[in-house]
Design goal:
alpha/beta, Rossmann fold, 7-stranded mixed beta sheet, two-stranded antiparallel sheet, 7 helices, 31% helix, disordered N terminus, transferase, methyltransferase activity, EC 2.1.1.-
C-alpha cells in the first residue's frame, strides 16, 4: 500500500537508489546472521514489524518465507513498490513510522536495520521507545546502525547527498537500554557496499529483548 511520502529527504534518497541499494548490500553476512538469530527464537507464525523495509530483501523475504507475518514500513514509495512486487507474502506500507498508528504490544519482533541515520538524536531515541512499546513483553528487537559519533554530517552515500546523525557504539547500546530493551548479543563488523561510490563502513548489530514494562514517553 502506497500512501505517498514524497518530499522527505530520506524518501528522496531511497527513491533514487531503488534496487541499487539491495544489490549493494546483498553480500552482508552480518545481516543474514541477524535474521537467523531471530528465526531461531521466534514463535511459529510470529508477527514482525520491519522498519525501513527497503526492497523487502533480505529481511521481509527471509521472515515471510519462514512463515512469519511481516509488516514492512518505509518512507520511500519506490522502495514500497519494489518490495510489494518482490515479497507478495508480506504487507508493505509507505509512510513515516513515527506518525503511523500502531497498537502497543502487537508485534513479536521488530527489525530496524539502518533506518535511524537520517533522524536527529532526539528522534532516534523517541522512535526506539515507541518501537519497544509496540513489542509484546518478551518480544525481540534486531537493530543495525553505523556507530559513528556524528550529528548533522553532510556526506555522500552511493552517489546521493545525505545528512547523517548517529552515536558511538556504546551510546547506541545506552539508547537501546534506556528504551527498555535488554541487549542479548552484539556484533561489530566492517562492510563495503558493492557500489562504485561506496566506502568501507563500520556496522553494529544488536539483538535485544523487551522487558516486561516499556518506559513511558
Amino acid at each position: 500500500m502506497v500512501d505517498g511520502n514524497r518530499g522527505s529527504p530520506a524518501a528522496s534518497v531511497f527513491d533514487a537508489l531503488g534496487s541499487d541499494y539491495e544489490r549493494a548490500f546483498a553480500a552482508s553476512g552480518a545481516h543474514r546472521a541477524s535474521l537467523e538469530w531471530l528465526l531461531e527464537r521466534f514463535p511459529p507464525a510470529g508477527r514482525v514489524l520491519d522498519v525501513g523495509s527497503g526492497t523487502g530483501r533480505p529481511t521481509a523475504a527471509t521472515l515471510a518465507a519462514a512463515g512469519h507475518r511481516v509488516l514492512g514500513v518505509d518512507v520511500s514509495p519506490v522502495m514500497v513498490e519494489i518490495a510489494s512486487r518482490q515479497v507478495p507474502d508480506a504487507e508493505f506500507r509507505c509512510g513515516d513510522i513515527r506518525e503511523m498508528p500502531i497498537e502497543d504490544g502487537s508485534f513479536d519482533a521488530v527489525c530496524l536495520y539502518f533506518a535511524l541515520l537520517q533522524m536527529s538524536r532526539a528522534e532516534q531515541g523517541g522512535l526506539l521507545r515507541r518501537l519497544t512499546r509496540v513489542l509484546r513483553p518478551g518480544g525481540l528487537f534486531a537493530l543495525a546502525t553505523v556507530p559513528l559519533d556524528v550529528e548533522g554530517f553532510d556526506g555522500v552515500f552511493m552517489g546521493q547527498n545525505v545528512r547523517v546523525t548517529s552515536f558511538a557504539a556504546q551510546d547506541v547500546i545506552g539508547l537501546v537500554r534506556d528504551a527498555g530493551l535488554t541487549v542479548l548479543s552484539e556484533e561489530s563488523v566492517m562492510f563495503t557496499p558493492a557500489h562504485p561510490d561506496a566506502t568501507p563502513e563500520p556496522q553494529l548489530f544488536l539483538h535485544c529483548r523487551r522487558e516486561e514494562t516499556a518506559p513511558a514517553n
